[in-house]
Amino acid sequence: MSIKPTESELEILQILWQKGAGTVREVNEELSKIKQTEIGYTTTLKLMQLMHEKGLVERDASNRTHVYKALLNQQKTQKNLVNKLIDSAFNGSASQLVMQALSNHQTSPQELEAIKKYLEQLNQK
Fold first, then answer.
1. Transcription as a keyword (predicted)?
2. Same domain? 98 vs 51
3. Rounded CA separation 119/18 (Å)
4. Number of structural domains, the chain?
5. Which pLDDT belongs to residue 69?
6. Res. 121: pLDDT tops 60
7. 35-63 confidence digits (pLDDT tens)
8. 17 and 56 in contact (C-beta within 8 Å)?
């Protein structure tokens, strides 16, 4: 059984993946920066408690301030989400996903170079 995090849970997981671990207050501050609007502390607290119950994060309660850490592997989670998106929105076509992504977002020259190198590696296999 694979756990499918919601959009809000993914935002929190992104923060925890980047930081390694964090308190509710730290995560709440980062969320507010990302969203560019004040997110209620109790909203973040409740969401992280639910994530703990679902097995998405672990909680170290040894100190007064609980510290949370992601239990889901970032790469596995991203892979599962991309596979689901390819299947559901692009009828199984990875190339359609890539072309849509490249046309929707500005891609830096460095990113394009990395994509070219990756495609060359795939062609050599």
1. yes
2. no
3. 27
4. 2
5. 97
6. yes
7. 999 999 999 999 999 999 999 999 999 98
8. no
Predicted local distance difference test score (pLDDT) of residue 125: 78
Q: Where are the alpha helices (DSSP H) in the chain?
A: 7-19, 24-35, 41-54, 74-89, 94-104, 109-124
Q: Kindly provide the b/e burial profile for residues 49-84, where b requires at least 16 CB atoms within 10 angstroms of the residue's own CB.
A: eebbeeebbeeeeeeeeebbebebeeeebeebeeee
What integer pLDDT is reported at residue 2 of this predicted model?
64
- Stretch 83-87: mean pLDDT, rounded? 94
Please indicate, yes or no, whether residues 23 and 56 belong to a single structural domain of this protein: yes
Q: How far apart are CA 38 and CA 29, in angstroms?
A: 8
Dmax over Cα atoms in the chain, in whole Å? 54
Only one residue has tokens 């991309």, namely 82
